[in-house]
Amino acid sequence: MDGTLARVRNRQRPRYGFYVDHVVDAFGTLFLLSGLALSGYMSKAVAGGLLIAYFMLSIEVYLATYTIGTFSLSFWKFSPTELRILLAAGNVALFYCPMVQLAGSTYRLYDVGGAAGVTGILLMPISAVVRHTVQLYRAERLP
């Protein structure tokens, strides 16, 4: 929203906006996952795993932005908007069913969702790293 507003007002500051937007996102994610870990609705281990996965994905995106010049916010049709919708749906589900049964065991709903999130989020930077490494190798072949 802030980037769109800057473009409409013709008051763009691309480097400043990029930097501030992503630093605020990083702190926001840290506070969100810390809050979930302290709430009792998600284990500290799952929240920590999600935080690590998020930062791994962020690092890959920022390095690709610098080295390749492409900034990707979406992976496999998932963008931050879809992730926020999933989180909102999880909040609604939490009211009705905070615990789930899987394979004969009971787990916290957010631990199950968080574990799925860790898996999905880690697959994103792994596939991007392979793709970007090949792309950079081809662009900078040795004679």
Description of the structure:
About 10% of the residues are buried. The chain has helices spanning about 1-10, 15-40, 45-65, 80-95, 110-140, and strands at about 100, 105-110. Helix 2 (about 15-40) runs antiparallel to helix 3 (about 45-65). Strand 1 (about 100) and strand 2 form a beta hairpin. It is mainly alpha-helical. The chain contains 5 helices and 2 strands; from the N terminus they run H-H-H-H-E-E-H. A two-stranded antiparallel ribbon has the order 1-2. It has a single domain, classed as Four Helix Bundle (Hemerythrin (Met), subunit A). The longest helix has about 30 residues, at about 110-140.
Shape: globular
Mean pLDDT: 89
The CATH architecture term is Up-down Bundle
Helicity, in percent? over 70%
User: The CATH topology is what?
Assistant: Four Helix Bundle (Hemerythrin (Met), subunit A)
Helix-strand blueprint:
Layout: H1 2-8, H2 14-39, H3 44-67, H4 80-96, E1 99-102, E2 105-108, H5 109-139
Antiparallel strand pairs: 1-2
Short characterization:
This protein is mostly helical and 143 residues long. The chain is built from five helices and two strands; from the N terminus they run H-H-H-H-E-E-H.
Which features does this protein show?
mainly alpha; Four Helix Bundle (Hemerythrin (Met), subunit A); two-stranded antiparallel ribbon; 5 helices
